[in-house]
Every structure is written in C-alpha cells, then in structure tokens.
Amino acid sequence: MTTWGEFAGAHPSLAAFGADCLGRRPAYLATMTKDGNPRVHPVTPIIASDHLFLFMEPTSPKGRDLRERASFALHNGVPDNKGTGGEFYLRGRATLVEDEALRTLAVRSASYSPAPEYILFELYVNEARCNGYGDVTLPSPTHWRSVAP
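Above: the chain's sequence. Below: its structure in token form.
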C-alpha cells in the first residue's frame, strides 16, 4: 500500500493538485456495501504530513464498509457543471487507525474539531488521476497507478 507521502514524493505536482482539490469541501467517498452496491458519502479529507485521513462517527455506514472491505474511491467536489478548478480522483484501501500519535496528528491537522468518539481511517493510494476543463493547468503526469498489489 502506498501512503500519501510516498505518492507525493514520487509525483509532487499531481499530489499538490490533488491536495488543493481535496481541500475544497466537500469531497465524496465511495464505498461498497456487503451486497456489492456502491455507497457515496460527503467527507472532509485531512492531509497531514505523509498521511491522508478521514474521521467519522463510529456508527457510520462508511466506517463499516471500510472495516469490512477496505476499498474506496475519493473524488473532490466541483462547484459547477463546468468542473471549475479541476477534478481529482483517488482509488485505494483504508485501514482503521488505532495509533494515538497518528490520531493526534490528524486532530491537529483537521480543519474542524473531530469529536473524541470519532473513528479514524488512513487512506492508502493505489491510483490517482486528475482532469481539467481549460481553467486550470494540469500537472504532469495526470495519472499514476501503484505497481504494488
């Protein structure tokens, strides 16, 4: 699994573009239900040092999906039908974070105050891509895929 930091170290311009896009609220997390149906959730990703985190309520369906199946897709929100600002998409695997040092880092880096009962996931990147419609300069490369399984 590739951490956000490893991805950003290999492709800094694509990661910077992605961080900017994911910083616009909300982003959308796609997970899969037990019966294989997709589920979409508005989320606020947190990029902290070399990590990409998501906090959520402990009873959230997205948390259950991530604990049971781990696979996700993440896409930034766009403000209009023109896709102003560009699009950024990630695909990967999530793991539940129980390390207190990582939780402290995520809390300090969040743009809001996560409730003490929230659970935390780290998102690992298997694929990243971006797209734009004339109003942004796209990074090079515009697509990256991990060679690791």
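DSSP finds four helices and eight strands in the chain.
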